[in-house]
Each structure stands twice: as structure tokens, then as C-alpha cells.
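Note to self: user wants both folds in one dump. Writing first protein now.
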Amino acid sequence: MDKYKIHQAIAFKCGVYKLNPEKNFDFQLNRLINWDGGRLEDVKPIAGKIKTSADWKRELIRLGDIAIADGRTENAIAYYRMSEFFMYDGDPDKKKYYKLATNLFYQYFADFFTGTEPIITQYKVPFKQAKLPVWHLKPTTKNKGIILLHGGNDSYFEEFLFPALYLREQGFEVYLFEGPGQGGVMRLQGLHFTHQWEKPVKAVLDYFQLDNITIIGASLGGYLAPRAAAFDRRITKIVAWSIFPCFQDVILGTQKPILRKIFHLLMKLHARPIINFIFYQKAKKEPMIDWGLKHGMYAYKAKDPYTYAQKLKLYDLGPIAHHITQDMLILGANQDHFINYQMIGQEINLLKSVKSLTFRLFTDKENAQNHCNAGNTKLVLDTICDWIEEI
């Protein structure tokens, strides 16, 4: 089996490609190429064949098998890992391909984790009935500060290998962790999401006795990281790597105003059967809603769409925003298919107690228009590093 050769400098791919007419499939294919180690020349020929989650699973597993046969382990890791993305609760292959991708990952990137002074040191932090995996990376130059990095709604922390290495390369000490609802913490240890993100963050900060840190949360982490900071003054700077004032509002933000009004009225009336019926009907027609519901009910341990919608309302900065008093950076994208960037006004109006607030909107002119700016990761990380140093 081939192994990754540690290079002098970390490099990122840059570009956004039109690969599939359905917005979520299109984004996840771009993510596969730019974040996860896939190749455009592999993905482009199969992209048009994907119309359902079953198509996605079949095509990505096939790409993984071909990559393994060709000795391209890094590509295989990407394809097997992302094949699992559209597998739903109850599919026995979901855990199988998650484990396969993860095992291949630690074999292929072994040199980062081995030796007398490894670049990445691994820890397991006790939390409830689980153990949160944490990577620790120390800079080789003068330490510019400590960063606590985590993902969001559908992340697994191995996906942040190169961002973490790049931050280290820029002089930062990095702690990267996976929390409830994410990666193996949910898939293998059974710990589902909590809106009280300050609790797993506290466990990590206590374990390593950390203080004066910058927390960076990607995607749903745009809510989770500020939430943790509201309850923990050891966090002095916040980077919300997505606009995220309220999860329920974010989900509805892509729908027409009349549909949002109807939804809020039905929720107020506790009209569970009607809400369930509407969501199930929309899921039959729209693959993104189908994925959102099935993944959401699994990750948030909700028995139906109505319960899932109720739980999403808990992920709301509104009730705790006045406790956020730190310096804060919010990063948005002008063509994010998940999040209407115009919601930034709503979030800014909530954050009346922050020490300072910076908002950066990335655009298609920068290849950074998509969710979490996946088309231009270097630009985003440079922006974060510059902001930390400036503050």
C-alpha cells in the first residue's frame, strides 16, 4: 500500500466546477475534489449519472474500488468516505465504508502520527459515555496562539487534516476535535448532536488546561462555536465559518416566504401529521430535502420531521447572543446552497455585546462562493490567520 509523503508546504486545490444539476450533489462532488482528495478526472465522467442517493452510493464505491486497484489510496479514501455520505440510518454499508475509509486514512497518512515527535499527537478526551478524538499540532516556529477547530452538521474531523496542518504551518498551535453528532463519535460511539456545544468544548479545554484560545467552527460550527464561547471566557476569539443565526431559519431560508409563514404557523399549532406529510412529499421531489431529513433524523435522534424541526429550533443564537462578548469573525459565501447569505443582517443584529465584529463575504470571483468556501480553502485560512493576528 502506498503512503503519503510529507511535503514541505501544504497546498490546496482551487476551483468550482459545474458537475450536477442538483445543488447538493453538485456541492458534495466539489467538496469531494477540493477537500477530500478526489480527482476531477475521476469525478466528472460519473457526475451526470447521479440522480438519487442510490446512484451516489453505487458510483462512489465503484470509484473507490478502481482507485484501490490502481494503487491510488488517497483517492480511494475520498470515494469510500463520501460514498457513505448519502447512505442512511439502517444501511449496513454506512458503518462498513466509514470504517474502511477511516482505516485507510490512518494507514496512508501514518507518517503524520508516528515517530518519537509526531507532527500530530492523538488523544481521547472522556465525555459522557464516549471519548472525543482530538489531534494536537504544535508549530515549528514562534507560537502565534492556540486554535480549537471543529466541524459541523455532517463533518468528520479527518477532513480537516490539511487545514489543521496549514494553520500549524502559519505558526498556530492547533487542537482539532470531533464532537457529538460527528464522524466516529456518532457512527461508532453512538453520541448524537447536542445544541449545548459548550459541554464538549469544556471537556477539551479542561483536559488540556487551555486558555486564551481562538475557536473556529465550520458550517453548523458557525452556531456551535459562538454558542460555546457564550459560556466559556477561556475563548477570546471566535471564527464562525458560516453564517448561522438559527438552524431552523437556515433550513427555511432557501424556501419561499409564504412557505416559511405556513411552516411557522403549523409548528405553533403543533400540527405534527401535516408537517410530516409536507416534508415527506417534498423529500420525494427534492434530493437535498430527502438527504437533510434522513441525515438529520439520524444525527439528531429524531423520530420524524416534526421532532427534527423542533430540535433545530434549539440551535438558535438568539437566546444566548448577549453572552457573546469576544472578538468575532463571520465568513459567508454569496452562492451557498445551504445558507442564504442575506441572513447575516439577522445575525449581526443579535450580536450586540461582541467586542468587535468582522464579516467577510466570499464570492464567485474568488472561487469561494460555495458552502464553507470549499472552492478556495487557502484564501479562507489566510483570511482567518490575518484576522487573528490583527486582533
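First done. Writing the second protein, which came from a different request thread.
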Amino acid sequence: MSDIECPHCKQVFEMDAAGYASIVGQVRSAEFEAELNTRLEEAKRTHELAIELAESNMSKKKDEEYANKEKQIQRLKGELEKKDMERQMAVNEATTPLQTQISNLQNKVNNADTEKALMEKTLVEKHQMELTTRDKIIQMKEEEIELRKEMKMKLSTKMLGETLEQHCELEFNKLRPTAFPTAYFEKDNDASGGTKGDYIFKEADQNDVEFISIMFEMKNEGETTKSKKKNEDFLEKLDKDRKAKGCEYAVLVSMLEPDNELYNGIADMSHKYEKMYVVRPQFFIPIITLLRNAALKSIEIRNELAVIRSQNVDVENFEADLKEFQEKFNRNYDLATRQFMKAIERIDKSIDELQKTKEQLLKSGNNYRLANDKAQDITIKKLTRNNPTMQAKFEAANDDSED
């Protein structure tokens, strides 16, 4: 942004490169030229009209003065010279301001032309300077990009990896005296298990009890490397190295997959491998700090729990005795409950059998009742209704019994 002062009103305002470009376009445009010429013509016409008006006023005033003079000739002959002098003075007074105004207008027109040319020249020079500066910046950036590409082409994949390792080691050593004075951070040189990581971080408390350990792997890749690797290609090996060296956490510090937004911060890969993270180099120190602080907080909680347990041994023993009593009572209760349920089952079965026997007896009694009803309903007439022989014998028997 630059401060610009208006040549007319002297007001100062800010203008950026886009504003300059816009003004240059306006200054150079034919419309601006036409508008400027139109305004000059209008100023010229205004100037001519002002002259004509002044001349007309002056002529009218002269006529009036002459008329008055003619009227006053007879009465004021003695004052003729004096009046002539007054008339001349009046003419001079009327003409001088008009000439001054005309001169001022002409000066303004000339100044406008000069300011226009000066502003156009200044804006053109400013624009050219900005273009030159921008071209130089672009050229410098292109040269820097080419230089970096050339440097990366000269580096092998191993050299790139070692460069990243050196960067991480340097960043850690900068903070070691203040943030990690008692921590262990060294290269993993033990390949007895057939493989090894890059660095191991460990730290112990004041009682020399280790409370955190991290296995680090650093991976970088040159832009010209043909076989592009992915971060997940190294997680399985890193997980094995972590377990082989007895580390709690595993962190892959990676420059791979630069366009993958998943790895732009701290990527938690615990859903694939336990306590596994992938970070960019700028998050190397933050991931150590986060894991270390979480471990310290865990130590504080464990220590507090240990103090509470040591202060409540009797309570724990009582809880153990109560738990043992509850377990024994629960076993006896289960046995009694099973025996009770078996007895209930037997009773239910007996009730079912008795119910069935009751139903059978009720059915048998009903049959006896029906049989008795049928027996009570039997008569001699019903038995001998269709048997004349038996009817005759029963009638004869009845007669004998009457005799």
C-alpha cells in the first residue's frame, strides 16, 4: 500500500497495485482523453462566456455612464474631468478582476495538463517497477525451486532419511536440557532380532521406574523416486520393532504422501496397530510431549491409588472377607435354590398326577351315575315291550302272586 496526495484537494489516501493499474488504465484510455478534452472545451467555453458577460456588463455600464454624463453635461460641465477619471477607474476596477480570473483559469488548465502528464508518467514508472520486482521475485522463486529439485535429485533415499533423522535429533537436543533433562533418546543400533527402528525415547521417574518408552521410525522420500511408498507400508515393521524392544508406543515421523490430508497433523493408527501414531516432522516434539504428559498423569493417578490402598488395608481385608462370605453364601444359596426347585418340580409332577387321577375318578363317577340312572329307568314294560312271550310269563307270575 502507498500514500497518494490529490493535487487538487491535497487529500491523502491509500492505493495498492490494483488501484495503480486501474488508474493507469483510465489515464491511458480514449474515454479519459475524450472526457478530459470535453472538460477543457467546457472550461474554454466558460471562459469565453465569462469574457462576453464581462464585456456585456462593461458595455452596459458604459452606456449608462455615458447617458448619465450626457444628462449631467449641462449641469456638471465643471466636473467633466473628474467624472472621466472616475469612469476610467471604474473601467479599470471592472477589468482587472476579470483578467485575474481568466489568468487563474488558464493556469488551472495548464496545471491539469501538467499533473495529468506527471501522474501518467509516475503510474507507468510505478507499474513498470512493480512488474520488474514481481518478475524478479518469480525468477528467484523459480531458481530456488530448481535448486531444491537439483539438491533432492542429488540425494539418495537413504540420505534423505538420514537428513530427517538428523533434523529430529537436532530438534530434540535443543530442548533436552530444559524439557527432557533425564530422558534417554538415542539411535536404535541393536539389530539382533533381525530388524531395528531408528530412535528410542525412554524416561523414568525419580524412583528410576520407567513410565514411558517410544520407538521412532523416520521416513522421507525424494521427489524423483520412482517407487512411491505409503506410510502404511512401514507400520507393521515398526509395530514389530516396538514389541521386540519392549516400547509402549510407536511413532512414524514421515514426509511420505504429502498430499494426503490424513497425515497433516497427528494421525492415530491405533485401530490398526496398538499405540501407533504417524506425524509430520513439525509434530515430532509435540507427540513426545503429549505422550509424556499423559504418562506422567497416569503415574500421579497410580501413586494416589497406592496411597489410598495403603491407608485402607483394613477396609480391603474386610472387603475380601465380605467377598469370601458372599461367595460361600452364594454357593449355599445356589445349592438350596436348586434343591428347592427340584422339590417344587417333584410336587408339580405329583400335583399333575393327582390332577390326572382326579379327572379319571371324576369321569369314572360320572359313568357310574349314568349307569345308575339307566338302571333306575328300567321297568318290566320296557323290558317286555317287544317280547310277547315274556309279557305273558310276567302276567302269569303276577296272577299267581295275587292268588
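Dump finished. Worth passing along: Residues 159 and 220 are 9 Å apart (CA to CA).
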